[in-house]
Design brief:
single chain; alpha+beta; six-stranded mixed β-sheet; 2 domains; elongated; Beta Polymerase, domain 2
Length: 263
């Protein structure tokens, strides 16, 4: 944790500690688990009674004694206040009753103040069977979206084609994460490198987003298709997933016939 992050954390802890409705306070997220860096935000979990949640959310949307001045405040999921300060420091405060904290979080939380109860490790809800189901769904959806390429090309819908490529890229990343056994709760919107193998990272970085023309689109689609299928086959075999041979063969022939695209 940097000096600036420590200073912000101290300021938030002191400010929230003055609110009698907050029974306990924890540090959450990557900084609590020792995996944060200088670009990490401050994630706090505040224990409140269920009856006080709505009031806390409403009060912390506006200026609060001790809190830094903010230029952006957003309520998320009915329990989180997301904030950006005038110097672009970022922090989230999650307001939840104890029973919900126990269900949502585990021992990865770091106590900061209050009569913080000892939290047990969160039960693993990402069972192997569920993971296999998600991987199988990813494979089928990837082939379906990939097979829609001729529609966008035929219509000259290059913006739609670019959006489709982004979907395929996202599915490829998710496949890699599923294959590595990375729990969904551990994945962050702003951090991927730590979860990917060097070869996977290099392969993804090498695929350029398509420009708004046929040649660029086909080149990018072929590259992402080869990468995904090459990654998916061994993962499917390891998880006991029946490979959709007929669907893959039909998709390959469809792309070859309509676009001259070879995967």
């Amino acid at each position: 944790m940097t000096p600036a992050q420590s200073a912000l954390l101290d300021r938030l802890t002191n400010a929230l500690g003055q609110d009698p409705r907050i029974q306990a306070l924890w540090l959450a997220g990557s900084l609590a688990q020792g995996g944060g860096d200088a670009w990490s935000d401050i994630d706090l979990v505040a224990q409140v009674d269920a009856a006080d949640m709505a009031g806390c959310l409403n009060d912390y949307k506006g200026p609060r004694p001790g809190l830094p001045e903010r230029v952006h405040v957003l309520e998320v999921y009915g329990c989180i206040i997301n904030s950006v300060t005038t110097t672009w420091e970022r922090f989230d405060i999650v307001f939840l009753p104890e029973v919900q904290i126990r269900k949502t979080y585990g021992s990865e939380l770091k106590p900061l103040s209050g009569a913080a109860v000892q939290l047990d490790p969160k039960p693993d809800t990402d069972a192997d069977a569920a993971t296999a189901e998600r991987v199988e769904a990813l494979i089928l959806e990837f082939l379906r979206v990939l097979g829609l390429g001729p529609v966008a090309v035929g219509r000259g819908e290059w913006i739609v084609a670019q959006q489709g490529h982004s979907l395929l890229r996202d599915m490829t990343v998710n496949l890699m994460l599923e294959g590595a056994g990375v729990p969904r709760a551990a994945r962050g919107a702003k951090r991927l490198n730590v979860f990917l193998q060097p070869a996977q990272q290099a392969a993804l970085e090498a695929i350029m987003p398509p420009a708004a023309n046929r040649e660029s689109l086909l080149q990018s689609q072929a590259a992402i298709g080869r990468l995904f299928l090459g990654e998916a086959r061994p993962i499917a075999a390891r998880m006991g997933i029946t490979w959709p041979k007929a669907f893959e063969a039909a998709t390959r022939e469809h792309l070859r016939t309509e676009l001259g695209l070879e995967l």
